[in-house]
Specification:
Protein Transport Mog1p, Chain A; 309 residues; twelve-stranded antiparallel beta sheet; alpha+beta
């Protein structure tokens, strides 16, 4: 098993799926473990997410991936059912110079008896047990690491971020987000199951002129019936927000007429997409009917599974 298996599985669920209702388990209690200089943060209420049809569909796809099977079997042998044990997932990603080497941290809260987890991790041949700030740390390939902080907290991701989280936990210190990210975190609607907040850096703006004038985003997802997403985009001024709306309308027309995207089911979603602006804030709303969304999820799940064949 690769040390990244937990990360990949958690992020696949986080990025592809969305929710049902519930405010408990919104991940705010896990934010102190996330890096202060994060580019994007968010959380998933896994207890509510598991009740959605989309989750069940993608979960079966994940089960077909050999690496995921191996990871689950290894943990199950030690007495841990990750799907049932995980209540909440919080995640963060940092800006990196090389996109091929992402800097990611995943924090999982649930029923993870520490001795049971340590036994499972010690049974993985590609992990090396070390110690950091008094906590066992399991180093993996590609500068990754996994650590158990308590009977309820398990973390995995890029080693520097894992080590920093261990240090903050040991010192009971809070991670103080960049002011822009802090604003977006406060603005994010956390009453659903999936929420996210991110900031745009000057470096990102230099690399992509389309991001000029955009400060950050905050959004939430809902999957009770099809897909509903609301994303708030904070910009520098009213003109920038208005331009976003205009550019979105142009892109919407292009996507609707793209035969390749239509064959994937993406183009059919544009009818349920709209963007408005109010002052310096633009808001993207996405409402996709259940049939169209389920077809797209099936296509994406098949593409992901094919990468592991």
């Amino acid at each position: 098993m690769r040390a990244l298996t937990l990360i990949a599985t958690a992020l696949l669920v986080t990025l592809v799926l969305a929710p049902q209702e519930a405010s408990a388990g919104n991940g705010e209690n896990l934010l102190p473990l996330l890096p202060a200089d994060a580019l994007i943060v968010g959380a998933v209420n896994m207890e509510a997410l598991r009740a959605t049809p989309t989750y069940r569909h993608v979960s079966s796809t994940i089960e077909s991936i050999p690496q995921a099977q191996q990871a689950r079997q290894g943990l199950a042998a030690a007495g841990i059912n990750m799907e049932e044990a995980t209540r909440t997932i919080a995640f963060a990603a940092n800006e990196v110079s090389n996109p091929a080497n992402p800097s990611v941290l995943v924090v999982m809260e649930g029923a993870f008896p520490q001795e049971t987890v340590l036994t499972a991790l010690r049974g993985q041949s590609d992990l090396t047990e070390e110690a950091h700030e008094g906590h066992p740390l399991f180093a993996g390939p590609q500068r990754t690491a996994t650590a158990s902080l308590s009977d309820t907290i398990l973390i995995a991701g890029s080693r520097p971020l894992v080590e920093a989280a261990i240090a903050r936990h040991a010192a009971s210190e809070e991670s103080r987000f960049n002011s822009t990210l802090r604003t977006q975190v406060r603005a994010a609607d956390k009453s659903g199951v999936v929420w996210f907040a991110g900031r745009v850096t000057s470096r990102m703006q230099r690399d992509n002129s389309e991001l000029n004038g955009i400060n950050g985003v905050a959004g939430s997802l809902d999957l009770r019936s099809g897909l509903t997403m609301r994303m708030r985009i904070d910009t520098a001024d009213e003109d920038t927000a208005s331009k976003l709306v205009s550019d979105f309308a142009t892109s919407r027309e292009r996507i609707a007429g793209d035969s390749t995207l239509r064959s994937l089911g993406v183009a059919g979603m544009v009818d349920g997409m709209s963007m408005t602006s109010d002052g310096s804030t633009a808001t993207l709303n996405v409402n996709v009917a259940a049939d169209a969304w389920n077809r797209l999820v099936a296509t994406l799940a098949a593409l992901v599974a094919s990468e592991f064949e």
